[in-house]
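Forwarding the complex inputs:
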Amino acid sequence: MWPGIRSFRQRRYQMTSNRSWTPYLLILPSVAFLALLFVAPLVQTIWLALSENGAPSLANMRTMVNDLNFVPSLRNTFLLALAVVPVQVAIALAMGTLVAKIGAGRETILWIWTIPLGISDLAAGMVWLAILQNTGYLNSLLFGLGLIERQTAWLTYQTPVALFVGIAVAEIWRGTAIVMVIIVAGLNQVPREYREAAEIFGAGPWTRFWRITLPLIRPALQSALILRTVLAFEVFAVVYALGGRNFPVLVGEAYTWQNQNQNYGVAGAYAVLIMVISLAATVVYLKAIKVDPERLP
Amino acid sequence: MKTFISAAMLTTTIMAFTSPVLADTIFLSTQLRPIEEATAVREQILQGLEGKVDYVVEEPPQFAVRMEAERQAGTHTISLVGALHGELSPLADKESLEPLDELATKLAGRIPQSLLDLGKLGKQTQQYIPWMQATYVMAAHKDALQYLPEGADINALTYDQLIAWGKTMAEKTGQPQIGFPAGPKGLMARYFEGYFYPSFTGGVVRTFKNPDAAAGWEKFKELWAVVSPNSTNYDFMQEPLAAGEVMVAWDHVARLKNAISAAPDNYVAFPAPAGPKGRGYMPVVAGLAIPKGAPDRAGAEQVIEHLSTQDTQLLTASLVGFFPTLDVTLPPDLDEGVALLAGAVNAIQTSKDAVISLLPIGLGDKGGEFNKVYMDAFQRIVLRGEPVADVLEAQGKVLGQLMADTTAPCWAPDAASEGACPVE
Amino acid sequence: MSAASATPANFPSSRRWLVWSGIAALCAWVLVPIYLVALGALGGRQGVYQWPKTGLPTGISIEPFLLFLRSEGVTQSFLNSLGAAGITVVLSIALGAPAGYALARYSFVGKDSYRLLVLLTRAFPLAILALPLTVSFIRLGLYDTVYGVGLIHTVLALPFAALVTQGIFLGVPRELEEAAWIFGCSRVQAFFKVVVPLAMPGIVATAVFAFVISWNEVFAASVLTVRNRTLTAYLLTVLSESPMHFRFAGGLLLILPSVVFIFAVRRYLFAIWGISSK
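Prediction (whole assembly, three chains):
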């Protein structure tokens, strides 16, 4: 779903059209729509962030950088992305490998695993609040096992590690499904002959995984990583539901400046920052995971 | 293609359902927002009116934006607004409220004159009709009373006594038992603006960074050591009180009511503690006003009259815990929890050391940033342990800039100012 | 590929047991939290304060959840969400599918720029975009309407629809289309008679996805509406100030439809991603 991944490949199949305006006619409605409702407000937002009373100014950027929550929110957002994305990819790979080994019930199991795909971050926050709050199920379980004597608070500013883990677990719960779908789809396309050939030559399961499967699903992995990382930088509702203001993140700060403080300039500055970070991450992935078009299945 | 067509038809059908019925009187309120309170307003408090009233709620910052957008665009949908005194005053400053003198004349004698005059917002004509009153109090589970320091009168606590009480409770029960609503939707900022600062400094803005304030913050750090660390997650204290997570809490009366009304025999309600400069307390007055250009002025007036009857006001008190503006005594058979809270309010009003602090006035849409100054100071001094003097200096600068930008003059308990209220 | 053929014959049963326990654990990981929030939603106010909790379905009834459904605004916002999602589906397919077809079948200058535009929409938190739109929407009379929300949700769903339909059209063999031309169909006829029927399942799955995107979006919807809130926007405003059991009920109400949606498209899910990440 990302540019650059498939463009080489597709050129081989493209029709040569004698009516060259047809494709432009076909994309025109969507371009016009996005220009009107995406590009125009985007430019307005950037201007909002970089101006003060109608003149170019870095005042909003300064307010943002000097705010007491700026550094923590930047740090938290990055830490969360670093903790969550690799675990999600690992779980997704485990799911893909497990499901490849079974026949009956495969479809039902895949359906169950994809349910979180349709769950909004707001709902995911509610779900994990039910588990992690003071009189919640985690405390009840620990109490039942005799591990704690009374209700323990996990989501406070005094327990930053527990709070971080709680938020990360909720994010992993919700966000793994999309990675799994992309990776399973990628695995489905790995021709069986490749593995069977490797098996004949005596490769063990780990070697087969590292040497055959992983390189072949590189494009899928790249898509999944880009998508998940961009989404990880936009994390907000889960954090808000679980930690409130105890765990500031970038989008949360943008939301607070916009909604509670009614200062759109600073909110815009945060938005621009998030966009720059997301684009940078995308470029890094595109460069780091080189997809060789000729090795695609 | 069939899918598209059927989806489009589905959509059109739904749109027909959702488009607003124009005949409704739209009543926009910043008060009684929580779902249970709003349901009580819709299903019980607004019953018995002829026309249909559409009760919509909005948080204060969005309320200000919304009213300003309607004023600028010149298209009005809202016929009646219910909001706090301080939220209505910027609307009156922009001449966007209809004068309500006829209604005020009708209600004179039933609403105390001093309260009714507040609704003029310093103008010649009546800008709003006082709707409900409330304030903030403390509540404690009766189990906590055994730990009260010796000789302490619960209706005249000092900060030192509260700290001693908290220490004993923490020692005896194994965890801190005092709670504050310092969560994202909690009203903690009001604690600093209406209770902490007036009690310790006798002011709010002028005294923001003076030596009294610095001493007060040191005292508050002592108190915070015996406050439940979950407090930064609490939005409404009735929940942790009812769940037994804390035994003592400070909050808005309407946000304590559910816990106390559910088990009135288990709780006591009492005034917030006093500091060196007295016992700060913040009365809250909500008013009803009609915006200029309201599409249904007659309907809005009917709603105001309905809400100003004695029956409706007593019903409101028992359902949502806001007290009447009418000059009535609460009947003894009223909801027991509300009666307890009313007792605490009475104790503050009659206490000799009370320092009245008003809600911020004239800040317009900067109310959120004003609260942020106090909450940031709290976060930095108490939660992050930064040096008090540095934080007050830095936050004081932000506050000074904010007051200069809005040119809001001082309000009580700060001494009146010429022009913008200064940070001294 | 069955476990027996993929593993040495020595420990087939223990290996099989390992696979199934892994699968069971991961299923529990997904399902147990949903079960627990359902308990919270059905347990009412008292259930929230119960300590310690057993995790067993005792003391639950449908009553608290029904009470939540009956509270003013819930049904209306549910309908609003359906309306906004309906508009999103129609617009994103109507605008996105032609673009997907162009990307799949033609080579043209500016193709990569178009893809970049699409990528940008994902890299930017769209909630913030709703801000400058507020002013224009008020002027156009779109503010606080389901149409306005549908439009901004289409910005989210349209790029997705364009890229996924590209994959779907790539999956329809070009030869079939060419054969239709030879038999005298015009390009437009060939498209509707040959391509559309083959691409339909994928397009329906894309439509369901667009629906889910709109259904779950919170912030743009809350910025752009006041009275005509969508369900998520409504829940965001009221839930943060509501007691716990209401929050859980709201969470459950948001989850239930998505379970059904995902079930409806489970077959195409992997197909469309497989094609589009090729």
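Residues 388-406 of chain B form the longest helix (19 residues).
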